[in-house]
Write a structure and sequence with these properties.
Blueprint lengths: L4 E6 L3 E6 L12 E6 L1 H12 L3 E4 L6 H12 L16 E5 L9 E4 L10 H5 L6 E7 L8 H14 L3 E5 L11 H10 L5 E5 H6 L5 H10 L2 H17 L4 E5 L5 E5 L4 E4 L12 H14 L4 H15 L12 H10 L4
Parallel strand pairs: 1-4, 1-7, 2-5, 7-8, 8-9, 9-10
Antiparallel strand pairs: 2-3, 5-6, 10-11, 11-12
Helix pairs in contact: 1-9, 9-10, 10-11
């Protein structure tokens, strides 16, 4: 069935300021490069560059940062007609230090963020019955009115037979209590077809102690973490989704299906420059595969290729690959 859009994403957008002093401690940064970011925004741009017809539901303030974001999206040909400007709010921003291979200090500026003010009326203006896939981020659920609007959008999309994808996108400092993340994420799962998340994000949907959420990986054995992850995934699948896609960094992705089977889609090892945005590139590639009715394995392999490309770049949305670039990269490394 022909629909107006291949993909609609919903959630945060913002100005990303990335350190130009790669390797320098945050306190010694002397300059930044300005990009556009925010997980659903990155995914929208990534999917558009791969060739999908994409719309984005976010919100910006009546400010020059909002102009910057909309100008970039228009240039990328992401459909922006459903993006409202919210009076009395500010477009958000992120500041990032880059200290490869594993230190990327990140500071969010999201007080009175415009995209958190998305409402049910904003969703009603969105043609959710005219898309193949609807994707939203867990951060959408951190505050009202975005929480209710997002839950409503997911319900409406499911009722229209749309594939609904939740990218867990767990950012502890965006929640008044990290335990609330799991409560909110679980409440959405009845409307979700596929969940995407890292091991830490998946475990955060179940853990009750906020200190565990922040320090979990460093305090327990790998075997214990894997066991908890398996139990968390079983619980997630029991609440509605047909699959959980576990992002595993250099190891690629692991597909967990409702019937209990697992399948690994290997990654493409590269030298890490900046990890931020790689997961969003993965989601864009994976969604391209889903829209084109690929099996999960091949969709994950394209996602892995997109993620591997972006992890070698300075920023997120601005560096998403085209389909030719992603397939060329994958073919040089053995193919999908």
């Amino acid at each position: 069935m022909t629909k107006q859009f291949d993909l609609i994403t919903m959630g945060r957008s913002g100005l990303d300021l990335y350190s130009n002093n790669v390797g320098s401690p945050f306190v010694e940064i002397t300059g930044f490069a300005a990009y556009v970011g925010g997980s659903p925004t990155n995914i929208a741009v990534g999917a558009k560059r791969l060739g999908l017809n994409v719309a984005l539901l976010t919100a910006v303030g009546p400010d020059p940062v909002g102009d910057f974001i909309l100008h970039f999206l228009d240039r990328e040909k992401v459909d922006t007609r459903f993006i409202p400007r919210k009076p009395g709010t500010r477009s958000s921003a992120v500041v990032l230090g880059i200290e490869p291979p594993n230190k990327f200090p990140l500071v969010f500026y999201r007080d009175n963020a415009a995209d958190i003010q998305l409402t049910i009326d904003d969703v009603l203006a969105l043609p959710l019955d005219q898309t193949h896939v609807f994707e939203f981020a867990g951060t959408n659920l951190s505050r009202e009115p975005s929480r209710s609007a997002t839950l409503f959008a997911a319900e409406r999309a499911k009722q229209s037979g749309v594939t609904v994808i939740l990218d867990l996108d767990f950012r502890p400092d965006q929640w008044h209590d990290p335990r609330a993340f799991g409560v909110a994420a679980r409440s959405a799962l009845g409307s979700v077809s596929i969940v995407i998340g890292t091991e830490d994000e998946i475990n955060a949907t179940m853990l009750q102690d906020p200190k565990q959420i922040e320090m979990h990986a460093s305090q327990v054995s790998d075997a214990h973490v894997e066991g908890e992850t398996t139990r968390a995934i079983e619980t997630l699948l029991a609440l509605g989704p047909r699959a959980v896609i576990e992002k595993r960094g250099v190891h690629g992705a692991r597909i967990h299906r409702l019937d209990g089977t697992k399948q690994d889609a290997p990654g493409f090892p590269v030298e890490v420059y900046n990890i931020l945005g790689a997961g969003d590139a993965f989601a864009a590639g994976f969604i391209y595969g889903i829209v084109n009715e690929w099996d999960f394995y091949r969709a994950c392999r394209l996602g892995n290729a997109c993620g591997a490309i972006v992890v070698t770049k300075h920023g997120c949305a601005n560096f998403m690959p085209t389909l030719d670039e992603a397939l060329g990269f994958a073919n040089r490394a053995g193919g999908l």
